[in-house]
Write a structure and sequence with these properties.
There is one protein chain. This protein is mostly loops. Helix content is 14%, strand content 11%. It is built from 2 helices and 2 strands, in the order αββα.
Length: 101
């Protein structure tokens, strides 16, 4: 199957111009992705963790140089992102008639 036909690629392409990024198509455990985690998507569209740059021991164990001063703060949970949609999605307003039993 061509990569152009993979759902994760289509999904990401639909949202490529959104400034906040986009959600994952496939499930990823929160132990493998959060702020500070560096990785990549493999040919199957799966997230492959390389290193957590906030963990000095892990960075050095992986053979990289730890950078002092990287801090990840807790999400206050107050920010609300606006509705984001692909350019192919349309909104139609109207009413639906019918009797409710």
């Amino acid at each position: 199957m061509s990569r152009k036909k993979d759902w994760d690629v289509i999904f990401a392409d639909c949202f490529k111009y959104q400034p906040e990024g986009w959600a994952f198509w496939k499930k990823v455990a929160n132990t493998k992705v959060r702020p500070g985690m560096c990785g990549y998507f493999d040919e199957q569209g799966d997230w492959q963790l390389v290193v957590d740059i906030t963990d000095k021991d892990e960075v050095e164990k992986a053979g990289y140089t730890y950078i002092e001063g990287i801090n990840v703060t807790a999400d206050p949970g107050e920010e609300r992102w606006p509705l984001r949609k692909s350019e192919n999605m349309k909104r139609i307003e109207g009413t639906v008639g019918g009797n409710v039993a």
